[in-house]
Amino acid sequence: MFSKTSSFFVFEHTDTLQQYVFLQKKVMFDALRPQVSSIIDSNKTPDAKMQDICELLKASVPHYDWVGFYFKNGDKRELKLGSYAGAPTDHTIIPFGKGICGQVAESNENFVVPDVQAQDNYIACSITVKAEIVVPLFVNGENIGQIDIDSNTPDPFTKADETFLEFINFEVAKIL
Ligand code: SME
């Protein structure tokens, strides 16, 4: 049996652990930022740069199991898959409003999904995926695409992921 005092201690301990994990992730993301910037500054094509970024993130971030960019497909109200790293997906075209990606195309806001099974408007790419984060990509204030991350780890995303992925999209916007 836990006394009130000991459960308070457990809560405090968990809180400290979460802060530690948050700081660890921040250190990892801070180390990746200059690598992303040097990819952006390289003399490759925009598609090759985005491919390099997808591969860098998938290889470097343990909780990123699939990393890809979707972009608005011309004048159509749908997204088209661009560069990605991870298993090939059937979902190369996603209508606006459908799935997590399609919802972000309309909301213009980050969408963090700690548990994909709890979502009814979700498009499953693989049964191993437990969580997803989608961050919109703006060029001149217009939502023209997004970065999409799938994770096989349950509830892995924090504010540090959102800030980092916003930075990625800000950098990618410079080459589009
Ligand atoms: N799960 C996404 C579809 C894209 S895959 O994750 C690659 C969604 O619900 O929009």
TrEMBL record:
Residues 50-168 form the GAF domain. InterPro entries: GAF (IPR003018), GAF-like_dom_sf (IPR029016). It comes from the Bacteria. This is GAF domain-containing protein.
